[in-house]
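Subject: complex prediction, re-run

Hi both,

The earlier run crashed halfway through, so I resubmitted it with identical inputs.
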Amino acid sequence: MTPQPHELDSFRKDVAAWLAEHRPADPGFLLPQSFMEVSTDQQLDFLREWQHKVWSAGYLGMAWPRAYGGGGVDPAFQSIADQEMRRAGVPICFNVIGLGWAGPLINDIGTEEEKSKYLKGILSAEDIWCQGFSEPDHGSDLGAAQTRAVRDGDAYVINGSKIWTTMGNYARYMILLARTNPEAPRKYDGLSFFLAPMQVPGIETRPIRKLTGEYGFTETFFTDARIPQACRMGDEGDGWKIAMKTLQYERGAEAGAAGGLAFVRVSVDDMIDELRDVSRDGRPMLEEPLLRDQLVGLIMEEKAMALGDRRSAIAPLTTDYPFSLPLSNKLRWTEYSRRLRQFAVGAQGAAGSFYVGDDAARQGGFWQRAYLNSFSATIGGGTSQIQANIIAEHVLGLPK
Amino acid sequence: MSVIGSTRLSLGEEQAMLLDVARDFCRRQSPMSAVRAQLDSPLGFDNAVWRQMVDLGWTGIALPESVGGSALGVAAVVPVAEALGRAMLGTPLLATTLAAQLLQRAAPGAQDDLLAEIAAGAVATVAMLENEDWGNTRYQVSLDSENRLSGVKMLVWDAQAADLLVVVARDGAGETVLAPVRRAAVADAALAPHTMIDETRRAARIDFTGVQAEAVIAGPSVLSALRDYRLLGALLVAAEAGGSAASCLDTTVAYLKTRKQFGKLIGSYQALKHPAVEILTAVDATRSFVYHAASVVGEEPLAQEAEIACRMAKAQATETLCHAGDRAIQFHGGMGFTYECDAQLYLRRAQWAQQQFGDARHHRTQLAALLLD
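This time it finished cleanly. Structure:
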């Protein structure tokens, strides 16, 4: 049943009141702006406690079935909770690969057993999930993955390595894409999909130091690691199909995510407020004509995306290319946010050359770090260039 | 207060119906062969098609029921304008709709006879521009104490087809006034058609010296009506340009899917794919801005929210069409350089549309003040 407007309104007030009361105090260390930036145990413990608190209050996984730890209510409630969390500027719900990708996948195509085993732990933050798709030699070309899974009795033996495993060092489970049949005529048909345990002998992780100097990703090595046969999802050879479905959740093209903030969304508003007092040529920055025009451009770009979200819900206004807005969502947002942060660093004047750790850095070097980190989103999950290919082929119908 | 502001965007039942009907009408009435057949005609449109549009009630969409309109507001003209742009169908609908809005907003209730004529199919237009500056508001064309005009207007949109011209002038006291004039009151020799870069468009230079005004509309509402006229004009031209940009993209994509070079379809090259996606994104943004603006233009005079929305729609739409048209020529290769290729129609339309009601620079400068000060 569609919720009534007054129900949603009063729910919004409840969430806002709860957030005002329970928002965590400043921990005294820089918090990650996205789930790809969890660098220390201190940050992990903090975020784990926060997500657990949000879930316990009933504001996470609201549309997932009650039987598996969800709230069993209309998704409209979750989107209100998310909006309020964003408005309140509270920390992220960091278990994103579980909440946003693995969870919806299990909900949609998992067996009863898989749902009972995994979903609740995703919501409560007890079980952290990671993703084993990319490999050192195969980044955006996922179909060429070489990590092997060889059937041996009631187990698969895994050999190979994965890279860019977000929170690989903390995760209990991995959604793993591995090759079960190297002889398959099409490379895509030789892949299978696993909900693999991480705490087994033969799996090692090595943290990757990012361009910011921090951590957040690992490289993951499999050396004769045995995982139960039962953790294969779907049939052998279904891996590509399931991985593509997972990417649909990741790119925001398919609904079903548990909710919560996956990243701190930085708005052009925040930037303008922060930079209002920057001086340029002896006058306030906001009086400089060229800069003003560039700001108008950024404001319009951000507004166009917010309006696009509205328009995509109105069928008669999406008839030309019905999948254009959902399929380009990732490309538009990540590229915009990279450019916004780049602009924010440049617009600071000489202060733009300070970095995190310098007392004189604006907002502790927030924009500088945010800019360097923004590439995780324009590269991860399929680079912007690959996204453009996908849109050209699947939306405009251009040839491969 | 967020600089992003309102994100209202909705589509009413009547708007959805008009969108459907108008797209279907334009598809049937205005294939490219019909568009090309009008390129060197005096009026730039087929009168039989125009009569059908009048019969469909499109000239009265935004007019009150008391004068024979359907009182749906300018918001409901937006989907029609978009459809016209998509089909590159040049008719006086936009000029007429906007002239009617100017009259109605400047003197509510006082010009009902003229509005009734317009709803019934009389072509109307506004004579405003006196030089190249769309931002100019100091008019030189003057009105004497006996309501006789003096001076020259340029780029009077659809003047050749107009039955009624609304002249923006200053009176003896220097106040801005509106002077409706019958076409019959203007000597043929006083009207000199311009040669337009967009051959689907018609406009003329008119010397109004000695022409007797039908009436004079004065008072404070004139200035706010002119402000609304410019903003609604920007919105309708944006809607039309958005439609043209969408079909320009379709034309380019169709070519990329069929043209082979070096043994491959050229659409498989990323150097062409990626810019095509950029155009798609810009077309998407245009459509979002246009229908957002349509969702917030309900108040008279227009609220600041509507001003921001109309300016953004215009800036986005015409920059998009300019870019889409420019790339359409380039991506068609040698073919794109010919008169025969439809890409030139879009490129030429873009040059006209970017100026009409102010270019993107003009609107972005105004937006900077509205958003940042």
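Chain A has a mean pLDDT of 94.

- K.
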